[in-house]
Design a protein that fits this description.
The structure is a homodimer of 192-residue chains. By secondary structure, chain A is an alpha/beta fold. Chain A contains five helices and eleven strands. Chain A binds chain B through residues 15, 19, 21, 23-25, 27-33, 35, 58-60, 62-63, 65-67, 69-70, 73, 75-78, 80, 83, 85-88, 100-101, 109-110, 112-113, and chain B through 15, 19, 21, 23-25, 27-33, 35, 58-60, 62-63, 65-67, 69-70, 73, 75-78, 80, 83-88, 100-101, 109-110, 112-113.
């Protein structure tokens, strides 16, 4: 998606360790008009799949999910990271290793909000090693729900997540795929 | 706002300790169409104040902010809770005590995203003791920016936050104000 690629080139910063900092529009400051464009594109791809819920993980994923909900008109469910009170006992859980934070965490979704009748679109801001999506996929599987596909803002194509998910037969649609960013130069691969 | 009050009565659950559980539409599962209605109402109130940024705190606040950004068409900035890498060094910080979690945490906003020229609308899902809003207000003051007002989905009117903020001359607009919820019965006060 050219619009997102252009924005990454304009406002993104490459830091050491293959970190792409896009906190001016995606991870700290949010450009919701851009996120709606991503949502519109996701609706072009998955709008006929009978999606009943959009599933993501707090925090940045929530904004991407809102952009998608604008078009899908279905509820969003965001998985919570550990440490919340008041979420109840009847939970789906999955362990997710974050390479950014260097540790595992447990994500939880209340069993009330995903059922076997749901057709689910997973969305997230980044796809790198695929741990977050695999955690959400595990929860969907436990619920007996159907995964319609995975919509990602920025995929790090040089990391393993996208390939592993696609090899497992999952439809992954990334709005921008970064094939490399060595020496600060961002090279895009094919995206939707 | 009758629409939100009705939704609270329909889907909210009162738990012991004056906890209102609204995770079917505001805190875990999200009804974005409802959040846009809240945003539209906030725009009626603050649309002529020259708002340049919407400021909130992760995680649930982000969805409320997206609903408002739909109408204000300005960037959202969400304050991060401690523990994030990659946010940089040049930060505004504030300490926020969460009664729900029973502990203090530090929230941070990059200095890049709030300047003295900004006119800021704070939004959040809940207002109870006002700690989160006071933390955000401290950050706005440090930046030398202007606070246009505070837009809240649900205010616990029987807790001190709303009164303290209004007594300090801050414009607080809550879409639903709960005056009491003893014995599970929710009584609403005056809201916008």
């Amino acid at each position: 998606m050219r619009l997102l690629e252009e924005r990454i080139l304009k406002d993104g910063t490459v830091l050491e360790g293959d970190i792409l900092k896009v906190d001016s529009f995606l991870n700290h400051q949010l450009d919701f008009s851009l996120l709606k464009k991503l949502g519109e594109r996701l609706y072009e791809i998955y709008g006929d799949k009978g999606v009943t819920k959009i599933l993501t993980i707090e925090a940045s994923g929530i904004a991407v999910a809102c952009g998608a909900a604008e078009y899908f008109n279905v509820p969003i469910v965001f998985a919570k990271k550990a440490g919340h009170k008041n979420i109840g006992d009847d939970l789906y859980t999955a362990e997710v290793f974050s390479y950014t934070k260097g540790k595992s965490s447990v994500i939880t979704v209340s069993k009330k909000y995903i059922s076997k009748d749901d057709v689910i679109l997973i969305v997230d801001d980044f796809l790198a090693n695929g741990q977050a999506v695999l955690g959400l996929k595990k929860i969907i599987d436990e619920a007996g729900a159907t995964l319609a596909g995975v919509g990602i803002a920025i995929e790090k194509g040089f990391q393993k997540g996208g390939k592993e998910l696609r090899d497992a037969g999952i439809s992954v649609s990334s709005m921008a795929v970064i094939d490399s960013m060595s020496e600060g130069k961002i090279v895009f691969g094919e995206s939707v």
